[in-house]
Amino acid sequence: MTSIEWRPVGSIDPRELGPGRHQAHNAVQWLARMARSYIEPTEDDSHTALDWVAADNALVTKEIAPEIVLEFRLPELTMQFKEDGERVSHPFDMDDRSPAEAEAWLLVELLHRGVERDKLSKDLPYSLPGMMVGDAVHYNRLETEASLRELAQWYANGASAIEAVCKEFGASDGPTVICRPRYFDLVGTIPQSNGGGQSSVVKVGFAPGDGHYGEPYFHVVAEPELDAADLPELPEVGHWHTKDFVGAILTASSIVECKLDGDEVVAFLRAAVTAVRD
């Protein structure tokens, strides 16, 4: 069993990260718009999936043109294009800037990259609570900087733990961990074991907080869904969630209150994966 890199967390109550999460979740929709506008669509929406680059605290699109990607960095709330793996000049600091200004910056940068800017569409097939649009609202890093820093720590930890568990269970095809911009979560997929079991696949994920939990949390979900009336036992630090979906849950507040380290988080996720597969 391999020790993972686990960054310090808990400097802010995990239940108080909502303001930073709201800013970052809205900001990352520009990467989703770029992916939907320039990348060949897939039935499972995987063309919009973002990679997490821990060294840069960054989410990055797939190529929107040959050797060109767009990245978003936490906690800076900064977007920047990369060509041939290198950042280009003119990053966009989103602090005190409006969504309309973000769109204008993208259009100029696309022109400079020789990418057809008329293809850029702001339309998304979903909405977010408090979606930031137009020029009447502004992104705000300064007032949410502490929560953005803490959120970046949680994302890095989430990616490390998910990757470790997925690799233990044999996941190896393509990126181990992806971010789904609609939900702003991280997910890894474990294929069905050779011995079969109840589920065809298992999703191991990290969410920064949502309508189910107002704080970051890890989750393990089986597809097809487990029977909520017949669930296996979990380690005491976690619990089963059965409203709207069935999954094993480990909240950030439990991690902080129980002083769990990265290996202990991985141990919980390992136990949960084993439980849903047996």
Task: List the keywords.
278 residues, 6 helices, six-stranded antiparallel beta sheet, 2 domains, alpha+beta, globular, Yope Regulator, Chain: A
Task: Give a concise summary.
This protein is an alpha+beta fold. It is 29% helix and 19% strand.
Walk me through this protein's architecture:
By secondary structure, the chain is of the alpha+beta class. Helix content is 29%, strand content 19%. The chain has 6 helices and 12 strands. Strands 1, 2, 3, 4, 5 and 6 form a 6-stranded antiparallel sheet that branches. It has a 6-stranded antiparallel sheet with strand order 7-8-9-10-12-11. It is globular. The model has no long low-confidence stretch (mean pLDDT 93).
Largest sheet: 6 strands, antiparallel
Overall pLDDT metric: 93
Q: C-alpha Rg, in Å?
A: 19 Å
CATH class label of the largest domain:
Alpha Beta
Q: Give the name of the CATH architecture of the largest domain.
A: 2-Layer Sandwich
Catalogue the unreliable spans: none
Q: Give the overall shape, derived from the CA principal axes.
A: globular
| Total domain count | 2
Helix share bin: 25-40%
Question: Strand portion, in percent?
Answer: 15-25%
- CA-to-CA gap between the ends? 20 Å
Compute the number of strand runs. Answer: 12
**Helix-strand sequence:** HHEEEEEEHHEEEEEEHH
Number of helices: 6
Which structural category fits the helices and strands? alpha+beta
Return the CATH topology of the largest domain. Yope Regulator, Chain: A
